[in-house]
Amino acid sequence: MTxxxxxxxxxxxxxxxxxxxxxxxxxxPILLRGMQPxxxxxxxxxxxxxxxxxxxxxxxxxxxxxxxxxxxxxxxLFAVFALSAQLDLFLGLGIxxxxxxxxxxxxxxxxxxxxAVVSPAMVFFLFDQVFNIRFPRGLLTNLWYG
Amino acid sequence: MEPLIAGLTALMDPNLLVLLFAATLGGVIIGALxxxxxxxxxxxxxxxxxxxxxxxxxxxxxxxxxxxTFAGAITAIxxxxxxxxxxxxxxxxxxPLAQRGEAGRALGMATISSTVGGIISVVCLMLAAPLMAxxxxxxxxxxxxxxxxxxxxxxxxxxxxxxxxxxxxxAFGVFLAxxxxxxxxxxxxxxxxxxxxxxxxxxxxxxxxxxGISELxxxxxxxxxxRRQVIMKAIKLPSREDYARVWKTVLRSSGIGTFIGILxxxxxxxASMIGYNEARRWSKKPEEFGKGSIEGxxxxxxxxxxxxxxxxxxxxxxxxPGSPTAAVILAGLMVHGLQPGPTMFTEQATFAYAIFWSMxxxxxxxxxxxxxxxxxxxxxxxxxxxxxxxxxFTFSIVGAYALDQxxxxxxxxxxxxxIGYFMRxxxxxxxxxxxxLILGGMLEKRLGQSLIMLDDQWWLMFTxxxxxxFFVLTFLALFGPFFWRRLFQQRDPMVSTGE
Lengths: 146, 499
Hints:
heterodimer, A: 146 residues, mainly alpha, 6 helices, flat, B: 499 residues, two-stranded antiparallel ribbon, 20 helices, 72% helix, globular, disordered C terminus
């Protein structure tokens, strides 16, 4: 199925991107030197479309096994991270790390604490104190920033 | 001579030396950790270097590159799991030797071969890079454009995808590079109203995503993999007979590795395979290969380590990455505002030579790390993935955020990770994407400049000898393997019938 599905998906994406590129502002011909802004991306997109057709027609199909449940769970946790990071980046990281370790079979308390609390806290203080990086304000970071 | 000494002097800062030793240890640990390799390690550590001066920052990245490439051999020999893909061939003879109770001899040979290969390649780098840069000094935009096209065409043969899929992945990277303001007209493209995208998609979040986060998903597929370590007693170094037997192999593989490394986009993995095959072809005892041949280890390790120095030649001299990790280092150079290319050896010569010296130094450090720390570093492999990868994710996300302090970069990193996972799953290597993203901006800029220079008569590019040469090389890189296969099929009917 993926023999045609993946190239079709790529072609659909390129088609959409090509349409978007037609909406770019154009430089008046009298001022133009070289290419219009849309020309180069359009050339690249056409190349990808042509090559994707070749893949669909000529490439040897590969047998793909089913994606394991752990991968789907990990992907779902990315979504959880993206949402919880809206409240606080490090809260999101802690929740994600703890949930991922749990989903992958880790049950030891010290290990879960390490990945969920100790490592995000260490990384936060390393970047904040040593590299002077200012993180976005949130529920937890406000405790430090005041 | 003056920049050579100035570079060495710049490196002789005690703090920097301590930092480089720590980076060597870090690189070895990265190379030994399951799923991490030199490219991922360099991508993850790149954000840590942003507040540093250029010399220590890039020296750390190159040290990680060399050390992680070497460290793959430790796990390959002791637990039959190559820490990096470049060490896959080392498993073939290293593990059988370890099973026979000769792990120390195998590790010793891997260490010495890696060191010799690394040193030879760095010496070649010191000689070849300035020469190549001098040659490129007179390149005009059409020559640079053709050279970049050639660099991208070499993507066809790298990674684990088919040539067609590799080129698609590379072209996708070039497409991503078009996001943001057009350099010549300043028209915004594919920014969707995000101001952060005006300057384009950052290299760092994408690299962290496709190398680090996608690997997390790959590791999720392999949670049940068990690793067993062979028992290693005291390290017994290779004997004088061993050295007498392998010195030619080491020299040959070092030459092969350096040459493969210099070719744009080809890296240590290809070098180790060719180095191993050539070692077997020239060996007086080819029957021992695959069963514990000391020459096999020497051939593979000298080649993969010498490719690191070779890969830095086009990276520094032309701005074309010689390997996936060199692409990350190139991104690091750009983040620090350094422009690789001919001017690097005139305007930033001290920097360039300091990097060469640091690579030389790290190759010497291997001897101590490899011979005395191998037993400890092999244990690193047993860190449970359930603990390792959540921590790697934390580092990845904070690293992606740190460069521009933008949450959009965090989401780009996660998105790139998901895209990278599905690319890998469907046979599209992520390495061409990374290299395409780096070279894409340069490609478009050079094409635009060429068209202005040639008054929109693009066909005039083919009248310039060097440009034509690069286009011919591009054609050969893309279609050469196909013609060779057809030729062999015609000459050897056994091949065509598949018997």
